[in-house]
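notes to self, project folder thing:

trying the whole complex as one job this time. last attempt i did each chain seperately and stitching them together was a nightmare. two parts in total, labels are on each line so i dont mix them up again. if this works i'll redo the older ones the same way
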Amino acid sequence: MGDFIVDIIAATLRIATPLIFATLGELFCERAGILNLGIEGTMFFGAFSGFTAASLSGSLWVGVLTALVGGMLSGWLMSLLSVRLGVNQHVSGLGITLLMTALALFGFRVIFGESRVLPSITPFSQLSIFPNSPVLGEIFSQYTLTYIAIALIPIVWWVVFRTNFGLNLRSVGDNPEATDAAGINVYRLRTIALVIGGALMGVGGAFLSVAQLGSFTFGIVAGRGWVCIALIIFANWHPVKVLWGALLFGSVQALQSRLQLTGIKLPYELFMALPYVVTILALTLAGRNASYPAALLKPYKRE
Amino acid sequence: MLAVEMKNIYKSFGPVKANQDVNFELEQGEIHALLGENGAGKTTLMRILYGLYKADSGEIFIDGEKVAIHSPKEAIAAGVGMVTQHFTLVPPLTVAENVVLGYTNGIVLSQKEIEKNVAAASEKYGVQVNPSALVKDLSVGERQRVEILKALYRNARILIMDEPTAVLVPQEVDVLFEALNRLVKSGLSVIFISHKLVEVMAVCDRITVLRDGKVANTVKKTETSQVELAKMMVGRETFGVRLQDACATSDPIYELSGITLDGKHEKKILEDVSFCVGTGEILGIAGVSGNGQGELTEVLTGLVPPSKGSIKLEGKDITHLSPGQISEAGVGRTPQDRHQGTIGELTVAENLALEHIKDYTNKGLLDRKKIREDAATIIKEFQIKASPGDQLRKLSGGNMQKVVLARALSRKPKVLIASQPTRGLDVGATEYVRKRLLDERAHGTAVILLSEDLDEVLALSDRIAVIYEGRIMGVVPSAEATPEKIGLLMAGAVE
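result (full assembly):
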């Protein structure tokens, strides 16, 4: 039983990693007043570009960096549509998701061709911080990216609440008119937020391909981006609560995949649905008190 | 030396001349009022000074030096601050964060330090705020102080206040005036935009009156009076045509007593509004826009329930009926915005039937033939230039207004609530609508005419009630209505 729990905790952290990256990315976007539904496609493109660059260069970190840049590009495209041109954010976000998904699929075909064997790389290996402790050793035997994700939580908190950039970010998402009147360039600020957000989403996607799987498949992201959209509301746009949300989802996910193996006579689809059911429940409970950034979804146009 | 000098300022918005050859001088350390009716050009002039608009021509001098201001940022750099009616604050942030927003250096934001700085500024200028409070928890008066402090924190030497008392309760007005007097003593110069005579006389040193985009006069407070200012502001000697005969009957058919509507903040939107209208009488409600006319219309038509008070139609209480029931009971209305009472995508005939759809329904289905026939009759009677099947949004403003009016009048209402019935209409359509209202009066309908067009109210009404800050300042029979009297009441003067 002890082993079972330790195993679940370790898996939870692993599953939570891409969610933490991408949700923090979404946090930057939404704090600036932009709902970035491009998240799913950006993660997918991150997974693709990360894998491809790692495969071609032979360096996994080059892969991560490429995914980061790819994500920035996706965020910048989103800013072009939703910030500069003031296009409806639902439409532009879904458009970005479709575009980035298609680009990734197309790129993958062009670069790797139609091979019968799935191209693969040797992924990151796990790093054990406490090699001598049986319990902590297993829990903290994780990918470097997982440690980075957890370290990002306080860093993002600090950026949002303790820097001038963060102050401007929080203002622009709530009252862009006031922010503009204070002499801050609303368009530039929102663009920067989207680019940072995209970078984090890209890395979140790359974690799946260069760390967890070592390959790139069409179903690699599997709706994790949409889960992040729910998580950010659950977290009430607060970095620390992003961690709790991601861990909650991760733990249920870890639990359900192990419950499937216990031989309980239930259709396995029920288990697979569990994390999403929990997400909906948690969102219903937490979402009632959600205080949305007031300018979310509203394109800003100067009078 | 003058703090601000604006010379020969011209500004047009399309055909509208908002400022024409305006000269304005602000002396160091004075509170100078810009007085005028809505649309007189006060706010336009100040938006030019603050860099929100660019003047078509003219010069601006600050502290004797010629300046070109293209944005609020440049205005702030030149020492000009502006507090508008719509606060530019970010509610979820703290007071200190709001004050320093856009005015910080470096990367790190130290909450302790900005709170210390803002507390020091609050102390220095005598503007009381709590730096660590969240703006969303503050009252309107407190938010306004944050705005003032924000300007002062940016070293404003010239402060523009755009109708600062419009959102305040009386006690907060006193606090504001005290603060302004204190600030002026320490060297600040203030421009105070207002249309309220009492306030202007209470707090200002000099007054510049704007009328129709031009300067009517600049006077010292000590050398003028409320009556004189009202005359300058309204600027009319005579009004156009008047009703000749007196009101036929005086049976009150429609009675309002003690109608009060609470606002979102402490301030009441409507306070103790009482009046009655008799059959065959037009009661005009005059006032500067934004003094509660819109809300009063909504209460009268049942869209918004009043917080207190009652409305009686022929002695029956109709206060809490739904809009449909009120209309059913015999109260016709034309909404203050014609687009609000119609659906542009539907046809003229459908819009005419819309309010009484029950009468056109047979076993759950619409009787389209009857809708069409009735519409044709109404269109003929009211000379609407359209056919029943035309989409409403393709009609001109005048014809659209006729549809709205026809819909109300075709039901033969006992009481008609006409809110801004001629706003935005051309001369011909305006004449038509006014004539219809007089016809209704002749047929014994009680008409309540809410209008910002003073000439219209004076020309059509048997009695005129003046609304100011949600209160009825007085009801004057049309024979006694002089420009001074109505102007004074509209500006909230107390005799």
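what i see at first glance: Residues 139 and 164 of chain A are 37 Å apart (CA to CA).
need to look closer tmrw
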